[in-house]
């Protein structure tokens, strides 16, 4: 029953709430930050799923637990979680722990608001606009639009939806059945979210025409042209090309100028999936890799990857100045976007998106940028390139490492060739045996907790490692460690 | 260039990083938590957008800033942000600050991993399954599937995509053009995300057939039946009914048993959008409002709303046991979901979703549940009902308050009738004048920072307030304050 006192637990008991949070923050600082980023600690503490279930005691019961038990649970969760901020976590396109970004995230979580109206998110509505403006400027646009999305896959879906809406505004109301069959184009090296998006948006995966990539993983513009003509000949209406700036495995950059020429010629929307490579725009030295991006209609860019802003920080940027984003998505909910508010309702940007409640993702990036400046971030990007280059040169000096190709970006793809396979390259089962090396080494490194690198097969190539140099706190010593550790782990193979 | 030393800034300088985070945590504790939840402090510090821009100095520059400047920026961001944890923030369907949930969120942000593979999220893969299992059990299912989504709108989209895929698996590959015209059904009181979703998924908003609601905002099953027959007569294929448990404005619960009967008869997927009302399932006393939910095929439920788990915490629950979620969405990316891993790859749940990287949203809810127990959460839910009831009874005692209707849930919809309008109900311009009251009072309360409540027009009704009783730390005094404050703010009207 309602009475004048708050419930037991912590609700309405600020002293207990503060004490709990102080304790938890201390645990986070010790276990997740200090130990979690320390090279003398493990990057992960492997447990088999069944054992981990026991250790975690996950069941949700009727009875609550004491503060002491809860603090122990916090320690356990951290202990068995992978330390993605650790200098030997090379497993994904994100890594590292930026203290400024984390500060922004803690503030975000505490303020706990939604990005939809100026009324409840005045700071973040203005901040989102400013951050988007800055990112657009780096693309080369002095005006435009954009939005923060829950990840690059959804950013890519927005691009598809906007492109088809611009071409066929009827689609919003009448659906795809009112439209001719559509076709979109992307290279075989594209991220898998393009096909997922095509399925989700009702286009179907068949609508994705796969364009050839060259030996380095870059889309072949001549084949794009070819595919467009073929699609038209088959009665489909091309509407979008999704180029990739920084492919997932090889880190390749599609030739955007040549692709933009093709798009211009055929009147197609050019989307650039720069989820991974977009942050290279910060570097005066390396941004030429994205030359032509200013000719795109939309760009997806995830600062949570190379800039370590924290999951998730993903933007869709648009060159459009006709309010396309809002026209395409708006539903004019009167309970949220009242038109008789006492302030300029153009500041209620929530109707631009397909979400209703939307997490605030701008503060972490903004605060990090304020602290480190564009120059500081540029240095970080340049440094990852330099470290990747160092790693490549060191690999060439060691006999157990074979590069898949010279990297263009900070994905260093290579095989570790164990002692028993060295000099056997011509032998009939060489590829098959080599392909089995990475899974074995991966198991060993994870079980020891010494480091984490991803591997994958790719086209006709068997499993190779994809080393990702992204963590801003990496040093040459971490590169040397990687090489030494693979040699150690694989010495008996 | 790469060298053996890390960059200046904080990267690789753990002492500076820790010092910064300690300082920021202190600011968060003082400004966002202590002051932010204190009734003697303002719920918001209103600034006009242009002035706020000046105060925030949002521009992102080349040069970084000193730690002192950054800390001041943190204070400024908090100062001008709305305090959604404040006991006088009644503006949205989320409010309050649960210390356990916040602890879970701080840990989540620090660990910064993605929910896609057991390899990098062992704790959270297992935890997500356990939380989903518990929520499914509350729905009434002993088996099934599910996933955490970035918000209820996207959860609703998943339901639509799954329903059409189950009926027409061809859709994934061949798209909607290969299908007959589809129709889905929802009441006029549904959340606007249903129409947004229909547009995004390529169905078009015309495919949404709007079913009548009764005077309390509940879907009329007889009209649903009628609409289905009509759609079929027009050549469309009905495939989904989206019922609402807890409508956005009125807090109405659609009659699920009767709707389930209709769905069963016509072989339609029943989705229940319980984003708002789902948490009522925790209450033995009130869960009858959702009777029949166990007959649904899918349920969307946002614990970030009534349970104050923190934005975003949203689940889609499924009764399906045929791996529909994965079949519908999987793209089998070989770089992420390698099949030759050393553990059971069924634990790599990321291919069930349309995202790639996915924020960890289970820990905040799990930790809160562990601490407070199902019983503690039940008490909180029951308490919100009791406080809403108290508020309604108090309103009846005061002449300035007119209820829109007796609430079924914790949305209390009412008009504040200012002195000049009392007793004028029959007069010709009464409705028009009454409709102008809420925007004026809203402006006054926001500019004073004393409280925040939402208002909206609704159907033929002019603007009324929607008071939401959700913050777990509310007391009777907060209810009294609301009434007194509206009388004070509106005494001259």
Automatic annotation (TrEMBL), chains A, B:
<dbReference type="InterPro" id="IPR002129">
    <property type="entry name" value="PyrdxlP-dep_de-COase"/>
</dbReference>
<keyword id="KW-0456">Lyase</keyword>
<dbReference type="GO" id="GO:0005737">
    <property type="term" value="C:cytoplasm"/>
</dbReference>
<dbReference type="Pfam" id="PF00282">
    <property type="entry name" value="Pyridoxal_deC"/>
</dbReference>
<feature type="modified residue" description="N6-(pyridoxal phosphate)lysine">
    <location>
        <position position="305"/>
    </location>
</feature>
<dbReference type="InterPro" id="IPR015424">
    <property type="entry name" value="PyrdxlP-dep_Trfase"/>
</dbReference>
<comment type="similarity">
    <text>Belongs to the group II decarboxylase family.</text>
</comment>
<dbReference type="GO" id="GO:0030170">
    <property type="term" value="F:pyridoxal phosphate binding"/>
</dbReference>
<keyword id="KW-0663">Pyridoxal phosphate</keyword>
<dbReference type="GO" id="GO:0004782">
    <property type="term" value="F:sulfinoalanine decarboxylase activity"/>
</dbReference>
<protein>
    <submittedName>
        <fullName>Cysteine sulfinic acid decarboxylase</fullName>
    </submittedName>
</protein>
<dbReference type="GO" id="GO:0042412">
    <property type="term" value="P:taurine biosynthetic process"/>
</dbReference>
<keyword id="KW-0210">Decarboxylase</keyword>
<dbReference type="InterPro" id="IPR015421">
    <property type="entry name" value="PyrdxlP-dep_Trfase_major"/>
</dbReference>
<dbReference type="GO" id="GO:0019752">
    <property type="term" value="P:carboxylic acid metabolic process"/>
</dbReference>
<comment type="subunit">
    <text>Homodimer.</text>
</comment>
<dbReference type="InterPro" id="IPR021115">
    <property type="entry name" value="Pyridoxal-P_BS"/>
</dbReference>
């Amino acid at each position: 029953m309602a009475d004048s006192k708050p419930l037991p637990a912590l609700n309405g008991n600020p002293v207990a709430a503060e004490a709990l949070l102080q304790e938890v923050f201390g645990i986070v600082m010790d276990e997740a930050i200090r130990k979690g980023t320390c090279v003398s600690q493990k990057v992960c503490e492997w447990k088999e799923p069944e054992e981990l279930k026991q250790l975690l005691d996950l069941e949700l019961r009727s009875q609550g637990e004491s503060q002491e038990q809860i603090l122990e649970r916090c320690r356990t969760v951290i202990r068995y979680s992978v330390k993605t901020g650790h200098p030997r976590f090379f497993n994904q396109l994100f890594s590292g722990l930026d203290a400024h970004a984390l500060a922004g995230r803690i503030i975000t979580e505490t303020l706990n608001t939604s990005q939809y109206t100026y009324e409840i998110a005045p700071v973040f509505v203005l901040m989102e606009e400013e951050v988007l403006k800055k990112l657009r400027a780096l693309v080369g646009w002095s005006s435009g639009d954009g939005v923060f999305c829950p990840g690059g896959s959804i950013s890519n879906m927005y691009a598809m939806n906007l492109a088809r809406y611009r071409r066929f505004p009827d689609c919003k109301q009448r659906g795809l059945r009112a439209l001719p069959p559509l076709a979109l184009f992307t290279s075989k090296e594209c991220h898998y979210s393009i096909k997922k998006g095509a399925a989700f948006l009702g286009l179907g995966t068949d609508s994705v025409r796969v364009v050839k990539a060259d030996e380095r993983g870059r889309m072949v513009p001549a084949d794009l042209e070819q595919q467009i003509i073929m699609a038209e000949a088959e009665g489909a209406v091309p509407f979008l090309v999704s180029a990739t700036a920084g492919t997932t495995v090889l880190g390749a950059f599609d030739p955007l100028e040549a692709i933009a020429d093709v798009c211009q010629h055929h009147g197609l929307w050019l989307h650039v999936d720069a989820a991974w490579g977009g942050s290279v725009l910060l570097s005066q030295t390396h941004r030429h890799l994205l030359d032509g991006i200013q000719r795109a209609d939309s760009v997806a860019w995830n600062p949570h990857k190379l800039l370590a802003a924290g999951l998730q920080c993903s933007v869709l940027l648009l060159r459009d100045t006709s309010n396309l984003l809002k026209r395409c998505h708006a539903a004019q909910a009167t309970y949220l976007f009242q038109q008789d508010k006492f302030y300029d309702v153009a500041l209620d940007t929530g109707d631009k998106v397909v979400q209703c409640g939307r997490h605030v993702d701008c503060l972490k990036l903004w605060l990090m940028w304020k602290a480190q400046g564009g120059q500081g971030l540029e240095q970080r990007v340049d440094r990852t390139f330099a470290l990747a280059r160092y790693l490549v040169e060191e690999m060439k000096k060691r006999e157990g490492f074979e590069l898949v190709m010279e990297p263009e970006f900070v994905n260093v793809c290579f095989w570790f060739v164990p002692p028993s396979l060295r000099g056997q390259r011509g032998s009939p089962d060489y590829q098959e045996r080599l392909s089995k090396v990475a899974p074995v080494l991966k198991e060993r490194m994870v079980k020891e907790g010494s480091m984490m690198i991803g591997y994958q097969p790719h086209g006709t190539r068997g499993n190779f490692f994809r080393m990702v140099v992204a963590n801003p706190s990496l040093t040459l010593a971490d590169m040397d460690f990687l090489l030494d550790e693979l040699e150690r782990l694989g010495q008996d193979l």
